[in-house]
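re the bet — no i am not wrong, look at it urself. input seq straight from the record:
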Amino acid sequence: MNTKPINLLKASAIAIALLGSTAIVGAVAFPDAAYAKGGNGGGNGNGGGNGNGGGNGNGGGNGNGGSGASISDSDKAAGKSNRKSSNAGKSKSSGKNKFSLKDLFGGKKTKAKSTAVKTVRKSQPVDQVTKAIRPAPKPKGYKMADLLGVHPSELGALNAANANENALKNASPNSRVGRIAAFRDAVLAGDELREELAETQAQLDGMTPPDRPVSEIEEDLDAALTDVQEKQDRVNELEDALADAGGTDPDIEAELKDANNELQGALDTAEDLGAERQAAVDYNDTVAEVDALTEAVENQPQTEREALEAAANKPVTDEVEAAVKTLLGLDS
């Protein structure tokens, strides 16, 4: 790289800087001369002492030779040059091309841009708090009457049906609460009876009624079993005869074959009659079960009423019974 032009530029810059310093000394030592020339001395140097050869100050301030300003105000003009840093006081003597020793030797310093780093905080999950739902308090007074359809006074001792489950479960059988618990059990038993009746009736509906009475089927079955026994005896005789013949006799063998066929036919007949009898018996038993359940369900209201009356100290009406069932949660 050729360093001569650079050295030449450095030497020129030093010379210009020295000339600028001389101009500054002249401006400070002889302020009157600057004003005598009508303010043209403002272009050389940095009168305010900013140190830039290009000069940002007004060496002679804002003076105007023809304006009649006092020469003794030069100190103020010099003070203004120290306060102004705008482009209004730039020197014209250096021409269009600006020159700076700082740019030549030190270069321009670039301010480092600070980069703001944003910290992103993760939002913490918020636990959802579910409010506990308190059970609705039991209504009292006229509200209870509206709910039950009767006034609590009509229930009398049956108001004990408000007892909790543990009290009903552990109450003495002869106590008021215990008798109310017996009424509740009777009602629940009635529900089970109705469910059982529905299931048994559905089973009966899927069965085929017998064509004849069981007694008649049994007579035929007895006769069939007797026939089976007779045919079995005949087979046994022929087998013994064949054995006596040395195990080989075409006539005995043919007769034995026919006897076995007849025995198998008798067995099939007896088996069919037995199945017929069993189906008839099952059907009749199911009918009887349905009848018993139907009767029990029909008697259930009376059974429940009697159990409730045993726990009451006042007359029990249909409305009172319905109210007690409501208190016990049995009205659904």
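see?? Residues 21-120 have pLDDT under 50 and may be disordered. told u. also The CA atoms of residues 99 and 188 lie 111 Å apart. so pay up
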